[in-house]
Design goal:
Blueprint lengths: L1 H19 L17 H34 L4 H24 L5 H14 L6 H11 L4 E15 L6 H5 E16 L6 E16 L3 E5 L5 E5 L6 E18 L3 E3 L5 E3 L5 E21 L2 E5 L8 E11 L2 E8 L13 E11 L1
Antiparallel strand pairs: 1-2, 1-13, 2-3, 3-6, 4-5, 6-9, 7-8, 9-10, 9-11, 11-12, 12-13
Length: 346
């Protein structure tokens, strides 16, 4: 059918030049190169060149017959009738010649699919399976992450001065996550990594943290309205846990199955430990802002557990410290409880 349209187009072009003394030039611009297998590209270009040769040869012969037809000075109706006969004859002739080229389209498609999947033109089954096993190997990587959580301090004391005056508290964290899938098809993975966490406790009621007489920490009432009062502590955090992925097994071809690590629903649990980097007491009032990186008895070590539910790169988590926020019995038994969102940079 395509060849018939080509021939009819040529005939229409010739006919138009005969009756209207006009010419029609068609220039087909080439498409930009795409990721095509070199073998496929070579075969298609060779096939296209042969088809073009056939078209040019038949076009020359057809134009000769049309010139003979033109010399007969037929009226338009008879001319169109004879022209249609010529079109059918050359269409059948071109179809037969192109068919005789023996172009195997299915084989070319298979080669291109293989190249698109594996970026290779390997032909043996052994090489192909080796490439598939390499392409769909288990995930072993580091990925970045960013998380933000709302924090509260929990304790079992019936009366705690910090509880009465605590304001908004939060945890900001970013770092690298180790992803270690146990096998190509395993839903289980070991997770670890390295994170940098900043925990900020804000106070209300114009209260602020200060060093007590015994070089401890205490809350005192300011003699003015405070614009800002917060204690920020940075930690280096190392987690260690397991993750389960609910995504289904996929078939990569040639009986090579794999499970996508990064997509779908996942649930994970881990323990973590960390060491303090620094504590910064920030107070802002009428006289301006003061910052003190002193010792406010914030625990130099932190440890706890975390539960995470994820979908693709987004995770909801709850994190509970087993260590006290402050050491040496200051604001006794206050432990951080954090709810938040993590965005994975997969």
């Amino acid at each position: 059918m395509i060849k018939k349209l080509i021939v009819m187009g040529l005939l229409c072009s010739f006919s138009a030049s005969f009756y209207a003394q006009k010419t029609l030039n068609i220039n087909l611009s080439s498409k930009k190169d795409t990721e095509v297998s070199p073998i496929v590209k070579e075969k298609v270009e060779e096939y296209a060149a042969k088809i073009n040769t056939i078209i040019q040869e038949e076009k020359k012969l057809m134009e000769g017959e049309l010139l003979v037809l033109q010399a007969k000075n037929l009226d338009k109706a008879d001319f169109d009738k004879e022209k249609a006969k010529i079109a059918d004859r050359y269409s059948e002739k071109m179809d037969k010649r192109i068919e005789e080229l023996g172009f195997d389209l299915d084989d070319v498609i298979q080669k291109q699919v293989r190249y698109s999947l594996l970026n290779t033109d390997v032909t043996s089954k052994e090489e192909l399976k080796e490439k598939l096993l390499k392409k769909f190997r288990p995930t072993r990587s580091f990925t970045g992450y960013f998380s933000y959580g709302i924090m509260t301090l929990t304790n079992s004391s019936p009366d705690n001065e910090l509880d009465k005056n605590i304001g908004y508290a939060n945890n900001l964290e970013f770092g690298l996550k180790l992803n270690y899938q146990l096998s190509r098809t395993s839903p289980w993975a070991v997770t670890s990594g390295l994170g940098f966490s900043w925990r900020t406790v804000r106070t209300d009621n114009n209260m602020f943290f200060t060093k007590s007489a015994d070089q401890g920490v205490a809350l005192v009432q300011a003699n003015e309205n405070l614009d800002k009062s917060k204690l920020r502590t940075g930690y280096i955090i190392v987690p260690l846990g397991m993750q389960y992925n609910f995504s289904k097994l996929k078939n990569g071809g040639m009986d090579v199955q794999y499970r996508s690590y990064y997509t779908g629903f996942k649930i994970g649990a881990n323990v973590y430990g960390g060491v303090k980097m620094s504590t910064n007491n920030i107070v802002k009032g009428i006289d301006g802002e003061t910052r003190d990186r002193g010792n406010y008895q914030v625990n130099p070590f932190v440890y706890g557990a975390q539960l995470t539910v994820s979908y693709n790169s987004f995770s909801l988590f709850v994190k509970k410290d087993f260590s006290n926020f402050f050491k040496d019995g200051y604001f006794k038994n206050d432990k951080a409880l954090i709810f938040g969102l993590t965005i994975g940079l997969d």
